[in-house]
User: Which sequence fits this backbone?
């Protein structure tokens, strides 16, 4: 397991995370990219518990996602099946498990203040915290995409499914855009990744 982890997470987190996985008898299965999730946790038919994490994530996002899923298992064991998936019990467990990792030997110094703020009240997905998502994206290889909050008003952009939109105004937390082919208005989270089109 340690050898596998060295491909995916920072070196100084390997021993800690390996111990968590071994203590909980969890099976980690890296998966190719899935659009709808970074990772998940489930009980297998043989009674084992399996965690999957997308292999396209950078090492810091992979680590956060993996600990997120381990926290699901530990909260489930400690507090029972009736708890909400991302309720107070999971939040407490996730924060507790992440705390030993929030130091400059594991994460870049620039990331630590953003992480510290996020873990005051962790969200169901790191993508829901657009400041953290943006900070983590700086460690991704270039992919030709930009966040929607960086798209200028009136500019055109394309989604991964090839639909084209015209950028509109910012609402309270989300951004409005009009689909060019239908004229319908849609709302986007600030950290939605899109492809900016040339005029």
Assistant:
């Amino acid at each position: 397991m340690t050898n596998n982890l060295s491909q995916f997470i920072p070196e100084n987190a390997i021993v800690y995370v390996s111990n968590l996985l071994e203590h909980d008898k969890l099976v980690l299965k890296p998966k190719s990219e899935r659009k709808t999730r970074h990772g998940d946790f489930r009980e297998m038919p043989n009674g084992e518990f399996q965690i999957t994490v997308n292999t396209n994530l950078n090492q810091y996002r992979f680590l956060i996602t993996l600990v997120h899923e381990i926290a699901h298992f530990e909260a489930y064991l400690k507090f029972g099946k009736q708890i909400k998936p991302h309720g107070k019990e999971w939040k407490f467990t996730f924060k507790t498990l992440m705390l030993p990792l929030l130091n400059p030997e594991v994460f870049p110094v620039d990331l630590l203040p953003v992480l510290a703020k996020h873990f005051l009240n962790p969200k169901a997905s790191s993508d829901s915290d657009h400041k953290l998502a943006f900070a983590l994206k700086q460690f991704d290889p270039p992919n030709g995409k930009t966040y929607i909050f960086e798209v200028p008003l009136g500019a055109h952009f394309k989604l991964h499914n090839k639909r084209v939109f015209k950028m509109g105004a910012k609402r309270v937390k989300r951004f409005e855009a009009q689909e060019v082919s239908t004229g319908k208005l849609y709302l986007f989270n600030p950290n939605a990744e899109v492809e900016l089109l040339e005029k």
Summary: The two ends are 49 Å apart (CA to CA). The CA atoms of residues 14 and 188 lie 36 Å apart.
